[in-house]
Amino acid sequence: MHHVVLERWSRGSSPLHQRDARAKILALLVLLVVIATAQRQVPLLALLLSALLIAAAKWARLPAWGALARAAVILPFTMVFGVICWLAGDPARGLSLVLKSYVSALAVLLLVATTPLPNLLRGLEAMGIPPFLLMVAQFLYRYLFVISEEAQHMRKAAAARAPALRFTGGSVRFRAAAGALAVLFARSYGHAVEIHRAMLARGFRGVFRPLETPRFAVRDAAFLACAAAAPLMLRLCVERFA
Amino acid sequence: MMRRLVEVRGLKYRYEDGTRALNGVDFHLEEGESVALLGPNGSGKTTFILHLNGLLTGEGSVEVCGLPVNARNTAAIRGKVGMVFQESDAQLFMPTVLEDVAFGLLNRGMDPGEAGDRARAALETVGIGGLAGRAPYHLSAGEKKRAAIAGILAMEPEILVLDEPTTFLDPPGQRALAGLLAELPQARILVTHDIAFAEATCNRAAFFQSGIIAAEGPVADLVRRFDWKFELERSKSK
Q1: Domain boundaries, chain B
Q2: Which entry of A75, A158, A198, A230 is 20 to 30 Å from A58 by CA?
Q3: B112 reaches A (C-beta below 8 A)
Q4: Which fold has domain B4-237?
Q5: What is the pTM of this model?
Q6: For the residues of B2-58, what is the DSSP string, one character each?
Q7: ipTM of the complex model
Q8: Could you state, in order of their start, the residue ranges of all structural domains in chain A?
Q9: Which residues of A have a CB under 8 Å from any CB of B?
């Protein structure tokens, strides 16, 4: 699963891993604005930004090809719009859309792959994101593993009792999948009740209190200045000289 | 004379769908005692323990350390009763083991630095000090159970309540858990189907049947009386 790999990557110890999450989030936002608002020479800018992100991935000791491949999960979605633009007679816009989305996905992936989720959530909270939203994200991430494991068990159980199910008609398979989904939903609800009880049993009153408060050091400020300036400079150069 | 930690009288509870789970339970727990709750599935054992820290509220009276379990005393009582749930995954919801163990302490308003130190000490007590920074889903079943117990021990409760503590544990894990429990000073209530574990860790048992406690006494006596041990007929006849 993608998130298992990202989880492992995020526990690295490179200089990029050690930067405060807020510095990385702000640098990401600058890069996203730079690529999203670009109008001229988008393929060249996308190429240069990708090179910058690959260099950052190398600095973080991440496998560059692995990161590039994982960022490609966005392509099936954006390719649809790219093809629509092409069919509408505007292939340049379609290509620009695909490239912008791919570079954006690569940048987001680099943030997630160099920042453990707890630090990322704490950084977002410190930047004013409502704690309730972050709590939902945290729980979703935590229990994705439990629910996906249950789904796999159910799939194995179904295969054990109906080995020929994959060769049967669509309606039978649809009914089986719908039933499994319903059971999974009911189990997820049961888990939610249990988790809530466990939280109440340890005195939860609606507010998560952090164990550590993140600190924004001079190094983080220096990193932010460089990481924000780099994409801006690249875009200025591309638009002026290309 | 031992202090009475839990006193339950005439406890009745009916679920929203109308199912009667408890039909008048009388129970007590003294300081230093370790009591196994035995009985068939659906006899009310888990429903009963959920009343001990106010997670469910039924008719009758429940007192913990002299405090009636009600909305006004809930916070104090949840600090006195540490509950380890059957599914460790339900209890380990924070991103790292250390944060999870410190969760209850931070909810009490403890300073984060002190909470971190107490959480680390609790992890050392259960023998998984090296796993503090790990994500809970990377732990084995035994490690998860220990982490869940550490989360409770960190709060220094007077009473430990464990629901099916040996579920998913292999025999070495069960032995390690029994050894760990033997070293803890708290009074304990264990819901279990594992008779060997109950015999090793409890000095008294209460047998639930249809929402009441049908009998109380030494574990071995109740096991004999209710024929509550897995034995093949073939080996019995021999």
Answers
A1: 4-237
A2: A75
A3: yes
A4: Rossmann fold (3.40.50)
A5: 0.76
A6: PPEEEEEEEEEEE-TTS-EEEEEEEEEEETT-EEEEE--TTSSHHHHHHTTTTSS--
A7: 0.86
A8: 2-125+214-241, 130-201
A9: 7, 116-118, 121, 138-139, 142-143, 145-146, 191, 194-195, 197-205, 209-213
